[in-house]
Predict the structure of NAD-dependent protein deacylase.
Amino acid sequence: MQRAARGGWYPLCTFPNPARERTAPASARGYAAGVPRIVVLTGAGISAESGVPTFRGPDGLWEGHRVEDVATPEAFDADPETVQRFYDARRAALTTVEPNRAHRALAELEAAVGDDLLVVTQNIDDLHERAGSQRVVHMHGELLSALCRACGRRTPFRGALSDHPPCPVCGAVDLRPDVVWFGEVPYRMQDIQQALASCELFVSVGTSGAVYPAAGFVQLARVYGARTLELNLEPSEGSPYFHEARHGPAGLLVPDWVSQLVD
Ligand code: APR
């Protein structure tokens, strides 16, 4: 994951060259089984009304912590205890929050359209799943999962990694949070790219558009011909790239949008 370019360098991006893809024939957009027609990208803003802090902004997590201290592989190598405790606290806090109307509306949409919806989330909480969504890609990993640095396996995890539990697969005491840090490659990028290339509608909910590659999904979806809609509390860095942007709390905007689709 990369920080956004602010008037300087262009973020590293594994996407196809837009100039070339623009000429792709419309017939290239296939709808094989399992290929979603709607892709919803969610960010911290969708969980804000549940009480999970966002990253940027006045009370954001990155106001209280330096990214470099807790969200890079280098930070973990330098001070694993601090990093483990940071994520242990966030994991423990999950037990105090519940899905909100926006999560539930997306689960209702999935119940109505099934495989035609894919939720791609940058969030590491489990609120989409607890609301009932089943087709969710956690591109930045999950708090309720641990990654073994010895054997590379990802296993469900609910405790405190600062207690130094062994890996349930290989027994090594070398577990880290299963989250994607700055400088690491997000999960399932190939699946996401395929979904973006095939969808008819791309909707972004509660994300600042400040972190790539997710911030570039709107442009990729557009290149392939999708209609694009932003639902966010306020105008974001990404707003100019969307066909339409609606501003307000996700707990209102998402149920409204879903009811337009399924009623
Ligand atoms: N409803 C809708 N949007 C909201 C709400 C709300 N109730 N509250 C806040 N927002 C919006 C903010 O206006 C902001 O644009 O959500 C966005 C949250 O932005 P960030 O805090 O930057 O979170 P996100 O975009 O998910 O961050 C991306 O950055 O630090 C990394 O790995 C981290 O996955 C994260 C990534």
In short: The domain at 1-52+99-140+186-263 is CATH 3.40.50.1220 (Rossmann fold).
